[in-house]
């Protein structure tokens, strides 16, 4: 139990000693570790050598750089990325000591792991085999709680919530993404709180990360006197005693002081004399600077023109000249991703038919193997393709900047001779449609796998819409653009039609409709208006396809009366029985509650009115939390009149809610007593 304020005052020297001892003990051992077991490296291999170099560099670099260092060592595919970060209220020597300990502990606490995060009292150390810099990672959380319950729980929760929410916003706007403060609990007791993000984040990302951490306080430490919650990118803590250095914390939150004015000797002149001197100096500077600036401008213009002529490549110029200047800048920024054409020809056996994996609107895709044994997938722009430079530029510029486990990884591109090629990681299970819509194979997908695929696609879309540094609308989400890794985890691919949005833009309009019918939201197909809600619609169609194991088209599936999938699902849902939707799903491990919830979420996503569709953040929460009640969906867009109402029900929107909906937002009246496939 924390000592009373009176006891603290009487025993302040001893209490300070105990705090210092506790801090030293905390620095000696991490309070939490994150060691994903799915990324092992070979002992004594190239990656370990790169990781050792990285860990030897980060502690010293962070201690002399205000507590933050990030670096990359090695080359693909054995690159090691690392970040060392110290709490803003600790000094350089404490920072170095903590990080030295963490570097030694990394191989002990997470042996053989390419990814790990170690949390200490004063510092954090993180490393990975993929870049994570500048990305708010909230996919994993950890917590630690005081064992003592608060004596005034309701008052404590109210004051704590106000304090931590305030600290989150203050930290996001502070120079070091750090804030610490107190709030009075009683006249004699304070709550001490602290919030901090790793300083590679943007302010908005920091605020979002801290908001997530604060929301988990009731789940981890409800009613406890103290606790902490951390993600890989941010952390919060609160106690009834001062656990941070208040003076150093105040300095860390203060804006940097402006530099003092330059002093060049003593100035004994009077005000009028100084004003005259200033005017004369300004005139001289003006007369001198204008001619010099003009000469420099001419010289730079001539030098740029000559350099451009010297380095001009005719064929590549034809490709790039149609793009805007910022497009060229983005493409040049991706030069590290360029592959040589001869390398890709050798890897694919000169694009042989035996290595062809499939073909889409962009062109054929080939499997290849590089000299180091790495398998790749090469997408080749066909000469008859209606897609071209803009789509290829989108893939390179957008996907190269994105890092998420549910997005396909772009390795590079090639623009040589007449070829336009994109190089991706190779995924052995190919695309989702190859299994889902194959009558002979779709039974291979268990319900557990389908549910993980639905969740994974949702997390990938959430990252694109809200959690990445870019706001991206995919515009062509469909089963053939979902690739599956060896563990059947989904990865969103094909960003040729993606649109990049600024932070303050939410809706776009285009006169050129591109995408796949059956997945297009009505506002996009009819009016060219697209937004994140357009992707939500496509996601809803995809969810229903995954559950039913059939495409969203008009076809003669048994029991569908030639209906499209959305009409069939709505008809079953309206009648209160969904067992007829499960012909294509294996009964192994079937979870009726999860299945019903996924159908409900899918119907919410395909509502005709875009404003009624949930955002992807809400969708992810709906899929993962059974405690949240769901609203009643309105009829999907494109429902065929007369078919959804075959049972004799009214087809007006007010009457098309599922049976029993009046008893609560989450409909549980759909029959789940007969879930065996027929």
UniProtKB/TrEMBL annotation:
GO terms for molecular function: ATP binding; protein serine/threonine kinase activity. GO terms for biological process: response to abscisic acid. Residues 351-630 form the Protein kinase domain. Keywords: ATP-binding, Glycoprotein, Kinase, Membrane, Nucleotide-binding, Phosphoprotein, Receptor, Repeat, Serine/threonine-protein kinase, Signal, Transferase, Transmembrane, Transmembrane helix. PROSITE patterns: GNK2, PROTEIN_KINASE_DOM, PROTEIN_KINASE_ST. Residues 29-132, 138-243 form the Gnk2-homologous domain. It is found in: Membrane. Residues 1-28 form the signal peptide. Residues 252-275, 642-678 are annotated as: Disordered. Gene3D superfamilies: Gnk2 domain, C-X8-C-X2-C motif, Phosphorylase Kinase, domain 1, Transferase(Phosphotransferase) domain 1. It is a single-pass membrane protein. One of its GO terms (cellular component) is plasma membrane. The chain crosses the membrane at residues 284-307. PANTHER family: CYSTEINE-RICH RECEPTOR-LIKE PROTEIN KINASE 5 (PTHR27002:SF1050), RECEPTOR-LIKE SERINE/THREONINE-PROTEIN KINASE SD1-8 (PTHR27002). This is Cysteine-rich receptor-like protein kinase 10.
């Amino acid at each position: 139990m924390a000592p009373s304020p009176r006891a603290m005052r009487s025993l302040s020297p001893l209490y300070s000693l105990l705090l210092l001892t506790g801090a030293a003990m905390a620095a000696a051992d991490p309070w939490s570790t994150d060691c994903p077991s799915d990324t092992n490296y070979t002992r004594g291999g190239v990656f370990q050598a790169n990781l050792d170099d990285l860990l030897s560099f980060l502690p010293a670099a962070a201690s002399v750089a205000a507590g933050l260092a990030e670096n990359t060592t090695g080359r693909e595919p054995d690159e090691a990325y690392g970040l060392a970060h110290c709490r803003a209220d600790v000094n350089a020597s404490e920072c170095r000591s903590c990080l030295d300990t963490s570097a030694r502990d990394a191989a002990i606490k997470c042996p053989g792991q390419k990814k790990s995060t170690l949390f200490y009292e004063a510092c954090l150390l993180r490393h990975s085999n993929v870049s994570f810099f500048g990305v708010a990672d909230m996919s994993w959380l950890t917590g630690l709680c005081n064992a003592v319950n608060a004596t005034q729980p309701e008052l404590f929760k109210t004051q704590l919530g106000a304090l931590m929410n305030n600290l989150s916003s203050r930290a996001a706007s502070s120079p070091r993404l750090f804030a610490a403060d107190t709030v009075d609990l009683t006249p004699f007791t304070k709550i001490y709180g602290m919030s901090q993000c790793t300083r590679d984040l943007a302010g908005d990302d920091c605020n979002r990360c801290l908001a997530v951490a604060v929301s988990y306080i009731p789940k981890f430490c409800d009613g406890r006197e103290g606790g902490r919650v951390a993600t890989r990118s941010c952390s919060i803590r609160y106690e009834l005693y001062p656990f941070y250095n208040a003076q150093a914390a105040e300095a860390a939150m203060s804006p940097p002081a402006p530099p003092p004015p330059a002093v060049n000797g003593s100035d004994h002149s009077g005000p009028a004399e100084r004003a005259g001197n200033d005017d004369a100096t300004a005139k001289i500077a003006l007369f001198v600077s204008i001619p010099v600036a003009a000469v420099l401008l001419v010289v730079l213009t001539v030098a740029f023109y000559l350099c451009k002529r010297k380095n001009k490549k005719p064929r590549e110029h034809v490709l790039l000249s149609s793009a805007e200047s910022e497009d060229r800048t983005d493409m040049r920024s991706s030069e590290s991703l360029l592959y040589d054409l001869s390398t890709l020809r050798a890897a694919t056996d000169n694009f042989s038919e035996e290595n062809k994996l499939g073909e889409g609107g962009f062109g054929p895709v080939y499997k290849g193997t590089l000299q180091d044994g790495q398998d790749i997938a090469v997408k080749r722009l066909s000469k008859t393709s209606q897609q071209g430079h803009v789509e290829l530029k989108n893939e390179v510029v957008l996907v190269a900047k994105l890092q998420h486990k549910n997005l396909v990884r772009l390795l590079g591109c090639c623009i040589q001779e007449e070829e336009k090629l994109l190089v991706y990681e190779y995924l052995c299970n190919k695309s989702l449609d190859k299994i889902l819509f194959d009558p002979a194979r779709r039974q291979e997908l268990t319900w557990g796998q389908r549910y993980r695929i639905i969740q994974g696609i949702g997390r990938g879309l959430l990252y694109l819409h809200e959690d990445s540094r870019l706001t991206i609308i995919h515009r062509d989400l469909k089963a053939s653009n979902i690739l599956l890794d060896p563990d059947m985890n989904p990865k969103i691919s094909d960003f040729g039609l993606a649109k990049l949005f600024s932070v303050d833009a939410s809706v776009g309009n285009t006169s050129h409709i591109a995408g796949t019918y059956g997945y297009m939201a009505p506002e996009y197909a009819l009016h060219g208006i697209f937004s994140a809600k357009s992707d939500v619609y496509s996601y809803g169609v995809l969810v229903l396809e995954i559950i039913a194991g059939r495409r969203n088209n008009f076809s003669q599936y048994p029991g569908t009366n030639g209906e499209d999938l959305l009409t069939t699902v709505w008809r079953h849902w309206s009648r209160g029985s969904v067992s007829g939707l499960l012909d294509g799903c294996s009964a192994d491990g079937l979870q009726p509650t999860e299945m019903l919830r996924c159908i409900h979420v899918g119907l919410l996503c395909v509502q005709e009115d875009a404003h009624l569709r949930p955002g992807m953040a809400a969708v992810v929460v709906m899929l993962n939390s059974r405690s949240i009640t769901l609203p009643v969906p309105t009829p999907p867009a494109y429902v065929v009149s007369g078919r959804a109402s075959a049972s004799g029900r009214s087809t007006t929107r007010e009457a098309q809610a599922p049976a029993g909906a009046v008893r609560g937002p989450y409909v549980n009246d759909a029959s789940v007593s007969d879930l065996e496939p027929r």
